[in-house]
Amino acid sequence: MIRHVLAACVLSMPAALSGQAHPLVGSWDVSLPGGMRVMNGQTSFTMAKGNLTFTIEGDSMVGLLKMESSTRPPTRLAAKLQLGPLTFVQVSRGSVTTNGEPSTRVATTTWIFEAEGDALKGSLERTVEGMSLPMGGKQPVTGKRKQSD
Predict the structure, then answer these.
(1) CB-based contacts of 144: which residues, under 8 Å, 6+ apart?
(2) What is the DSSP string of the chain?
(3) Spatial distance between the Cα atoms of 96 and 130, rounded to a whole number of angstroms
(4) Strands 75-80 and 60-67
(5) Is the pLDDT of residue 11 over 50?
(6) pLDDT at 17 over 50
(7) Distance (Å, whole) CA 88 – CA 130
(8) Which of 39, 56, 63, 89 is most exposed, with the fewest beta carbons within 10 Å of its own?
């Protein structure tokens, strides 16, 4: 009997989460590493600003990141809906210039986000295929909930 109750609770969790507001849902003004440069083995980051909007779609949390002052298209993130911090894995193509030679490589970015009231905290970590140099490890992402007009 107890197993049936526990199984019902676990199976109904996504439905229960989708019926209520998750702390991440909403629009956030964010600050994050926007670019990376590796020179002589040293990694440095340029910080960028953007808007990140989270919505619930079915059993998933979906984020749309629009960078300020950028011609890049918006980035779409999706993760299985759950309580606590959410992890999003994004695979994309990026341009890399090595010794003056440009090339395109597959980049994997792992994003982790958690909301505490009107504060967003998180991180991103990138790996690029064929790059043996460190990519700087986890980098902080911070944000503030955008207030409705």
Answers:
(1) 28, 29, 118, 119, 120
(2) -HHHHHHHHHHHHHHHHHTS--TT-EEEEEEEEEEEEEETTEEEEEEEEEEEEEEEETTEEEEEEEETT--SPPEEEEEE--SS-EEEEEEEEEEEEETTEEEEEEEEEEEEEEEETTEEEEEEEEEETT--S---S-EEEEEEEPPP-
(3) 11
(4) antiparallel
(5) no
(6) no
(7) 22
(8) 39
Give the Cα separation of 17 and 58 in Å (integer).
10
The span from the CA of 86 to the CA of 142, in Å, is 15
Spatial distance between the Cα atoms of 131 and 38, rounded to a whole number of angstroms: 10
- pLDDT given at position 31: 96
Is residue 28 within 8 Å of 144, Cβ to Cβ? Answer: yes
Q: pLDDT value at position 116?
A: 95
